[in-house]
Amino acid sequence: MRRFLLQSFLYSLLFLLLASCKTYKLENVEPLSLSRNQKPSENLYFTSSQDYVYKCQMEVYGNDISGILIIKKISETTHRIVMTSDFGNKMIDFEIGENDYFKLNYVLADLDKKMVINFLKNDFQELLRKNYPVSERFENSESIIDISKIDEKIYYLFFDKKSDNLTQIIYTKNNREKIDFTFDAKKTTFAETINLQHKDFKINIKLNQITETEQETE
């Protein structure tokens, strides 16, 4: 069954170029001024030294792949990501960091495809990106929105006005919406749930926190 799901995952990725992306534009916002020495905006969710452990659910063109995902900060610029099956069998283990650093420690034979590795590498590089130079700032009734331009990429970071927590990152390239990250968090360094939705093909990833009680009983 697992082999069938993994094969379906691979075949589904072939439809990437057949899907379309829509242009992204902020609406119903007001501009805010920036200071002369404006500090970068930050995603602090993976900056703690603790292990981030999630139940992971991938939906790929209607096929579900589930497992346990562990993200660990191993240096100031590098994280290690390990995904296992629900039964504890390792599926993939890699390190990722700044300046396009990537080291593959292990991958299950069924997942050892260049397309899959690149897909995971790119998604987690975006999820774990910490610093975003701010070029513009806006607000609406609920959020402060920082815009960060990096090469051909533009990031829209939404911070809740009440809690200051990061609630959403919309990643665009060439003015086309690519990935929508949404976060549900009680504190700035840990998101209890993370949803990652691709806009150019039908792949979604949902991460739900595993509590200490769940970890002890599994």
Characterization of the model:
It is a single chain. This protein is mostly beta strands. The chain is built from three helices and 15 strands. It has helices spanning 2-13, 114-127, 212-217; strands spanning 30-32, 41-42, 52-60, 63-73, 78-84, 90-97, 102-107, 131-132, 136-139, 143-150, 153-160, 166-173, 176-187, 190-198, 203-209. The strands form two sheets. The chain has a 13-stranded antiparallel beta sheet with strand order 1-9-10-11-12-13-14-15-3-4-5-6-7. Strand 13 and strand 14 (190-198) form a beta hairpin. The longest helix is centred in the middle third of the chain and has 14 residues, at 114-127. The two termini are 22 Å apart.
Structure keywords:
218 residues; 13-stranded antiparallel sheet; two-stranded antiparallel sheet; globular
What class, by secondary structure content? mainly beta
Largest sheet: 13 strands, antiparallel
Output the helix-strand order: HEEEEEEEHEEEEEEEEH
Which geometry do the CA atoms define?
Answer: globular
Distance between the termini: 22 Å
- Percent range of helical residues: 10-25%
